[in-house]
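Reply to dn_fold:

You asked what the input looked like. This is it:
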Amino acid sequence: EALAAEKKRLELLYHLSQSLAASLDPREVSVRALDLTTAALGVFRGEIFVREPGSERLRLVAMSGYDVKSVEALDRELNLRMGQGLAGSAAFARAPHIAPDVAHDEHWLSVPGMDDWVRSAAAIPLLAGDELVGVLNLLSDRAGFFHAEDLPLLTAVTVPMALALQKARLF
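and this is what came back:
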């Protein structure tokens, strides 16, 4: 069982590295990363925010599992900053944040009608070296879905994402 789990982790990392190297469009990179990650981890929905260079603003660039017409419109509505919400807190601290039960997490910022179903969440900063590129937000409809034991895998998953997004930004 442990070998099967490790194989699954390595396959995810391999597929992320291969898939994300194929594009220099930040939105396409983000969507691919989310689709692969949410499918492999059995996560219902996910979001990627990128940090706007030279600012404290975190811009929503991709969502997976949502039935929303415009990512841009939702981004304008959220207007997320570092330190705000789960993603903003993870970005500010440059450290992952697991919320096993969002109802009891002081950092959880609810968006009525969009995430009423969310019970647990994980926000992992996307770091390329010392540079904060953005944040990966993973959401589950099951309380206790995310645990501290998930952090090594979640952190490993963000490495190819952060590098691909940084490369796309520089291009």
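The CA atoms of residues 103 and 119 lie 7 Å apart.
Hope that clears it up.
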